Amino acid sequence: MWDFVEEVTRRPPLVLGVDPRPAWHPGKDKLGQIRRYSLEVMEALAPRIAAVKFQAAFFEALGPEGYALMHELAAAARVMALPVIWDVKRGDIGSTAQAYAQAYLEAYPGSAVTVNPYLGEDAVAPFLEAAARSRGMVFVLVKTSNPGSGMFQDLEVAGRPLYRVVAEAVAAWSERYAVGRWSRVGAVVGGTYPERVRELREGMPRSLFLVPGLGAQGGAVLRGEGLLLSASRALYYPGGRPDVGVALRQARAYLEALRAPMAEGSS
Ligand SMILES: O=c1ccn([C@@H]2O[C@H](COP(=O)(O)O)[C@@H](O)[C@H]2O)c(=O)[nH]1
Q: Which residue among 18, 19, 89 has the greatest number of ligand 1 atoms within 8 angstroms of its CB, and so is best to mutate?
């Protein structure tokens, strides 16, 4: 069985977000076009990315066939030896969390899932245990990329912002589920808040960070150990439309920016 943590840490630190929008595909057979285009773009970008991230909401919005398509594309990603992140942001009482963990981690060994920690440790634990059994990973929402993320996440709790309280819990869990240098417990930290990325990086040394917000949300390329930069629209629909050639150029440009020598005072 392959291991998500081992796989993603030896690949380029870029994540392709697949968020299909039928209106952006011309013609009638929207689902067929999304299927073909997603397979093409995944295959073209596979050597240049750490993982493909499926945003369940966009597939659910396509109805039962859309949901089935997400699973079909995940199976295709596995054939391409491409690690899968299920961006489902699940969070529920423990017994239900167990069912979610079964659906996304146990059913797809070596994959990862995004989890909302708001219900507490007993609700997160089934995901952590399933990730350990299935050699997968859990990315816990710590500081999200959206403009309103501060409404709750920045509230002061016991002398520090709530996102730091969550980060401390994630850091403790990540020690418990360590795999070599890294851990099965990572964090989602929005690339639209580069200062928060830097600050949290220090306090969570074992956690890989899934960093969404690159491109369409205004996030720039950020460097740092263990940062997996994620772009959906900017890579999947570069320039606002499906185009595999442009997607490939955009992925190369992001990777070149990551490799370029650092300007004085930048990070
Ligand atoms: O804090 C978060 C957590 C998740 N997301 C998800 O990432 C993509 C971003 O899409 P773009 O087109 O690159 O803006 C999307 O699926 C979000 O649900 C996030 O943006 N921020």
A: 19
**Which CATH superfamily, name and number, covers 4-259?**
Aldolase class I (3.20.20.70)
- Active-site positions? 89
What are the domain boundaries of the chain?
4-259
- The whole-model pTM stands at 0.97
- Residue 205 CA, ligand 1 centroid: distance in Å: 23
pLDDT for position 266 = 52
The one-character DSSP state at 229 is: E
Nearest to 244 by CA among 256, 254, 235: 235
ipTM score: 0.99
Structure-derived torsion over alpha carbons of residues 114, 116, 120, 124, reported in degrees to the nearest 10 = -20
Distance from residue 70's CA to the centre of ligand 1 (Å): 17
Residue 219: closest CA among 251, 180, 189, 255? 189
Ligand 1 within 6 A of CB of 233: yes
How confident is the model over 167-207, as pLDDT tens digits?
Answer: 999 999 999 999 999 999 999 999 999 999 999 999 999 99
